[in-house]
Design brief:
Order of helices and strands: EEEHEEHHEHEEEHHEH
Strand order of the largest sheet: 5-4-1-6-9
Strand content: 15-25%
Number of helices: 7
Distance between the termini: 34 Å
Helix content: 25-40%
Largest sheet: 5 strands, mixed
Length: 191
């Protein structure tokens, strides 16, 4: 773990994978299941690191409850376990279908100056499922879930979030980092 970075990590591996037709967490990248690969990257940067989902990563697992309630609900499912482990700071949130995220990408988010939430932008769209979320925004997420929200869009509307453009990643890296399994580009081996 990087010494200067004081973040926890939450890897989301749940969901129904309806568009894929099979479990995204098990898709192999260079012979390693996505969830296992991302768990290793998160362990280099964050502590504690938890998985919310069915237990595909080798991390300590938190049950998200009924599948299909959305990523906002899944992210909030980890908060009691993180607090029980003594973590009350920011959290790196990462979805398992962003399989090309590396530890260096997570360090960039974790070490971003200030205490605000940090959400990358790719192709003009926010990437809330590969982001650093502040304790205040995580508390707000819990309130949003209690009100019936399920989408990360509700959380993105909060003031003070830092949106980081693609220029902060090495040339061309953002395209690969934020490519998810739902829209496979031509350079994927199975495309």
């Amino acid at each position: 773990m990087t010494e200067a970075v004081k973040v926890a990590g939450v890897l989301l591996t749940g969901g129904a994978s309806r568009r894929m037709g099979f479990d995204k967490a098990l898709v192999e990248v260079n012979g390693v299941p996505s969830a296992v690969r991302l768990a290793a990257a998160m362990r280099e940067v964050a502590s504690p690191v938890l998985e919310v989902g069915p237990g595909r990563s080798g991390l300590t697992t938190v049950d998200e409850g009924p599948v299909g309630r959305g990523p906002l609900v899944a992210a909030c499912a980890a908060l009691p376990a993180l607090r029980a482990a003594g973590h009350i700071g920011p959290v790196l949130l990462l979805a398992c279908d962003l399989a090309f995220v590396a530890a260096a990408d997570l360090v960039l988010l974790a070490s971003w100056p200030g205490s605000a939430s940090v959400v990358p932008m790719a192709g003009g769209r926010p990437q809330p499922l590969c982001a650093r979320w502040s304790p205040d925004d995580l508390d707000a997420a819990t309130v949003l879930v209690r009100r019936g929200e399920r989408s990360m869009k509700a959380l993105l509307a909060r003031p003070g979030i830092v949106f980081v453009d693609e220029g902060h990643w090495p040339a061309g890296r953002a395209r690969r980092v934020f490519a998810d399994f739902d829209t496979p580009p031509t350079w994927w081996p199975w495309a």
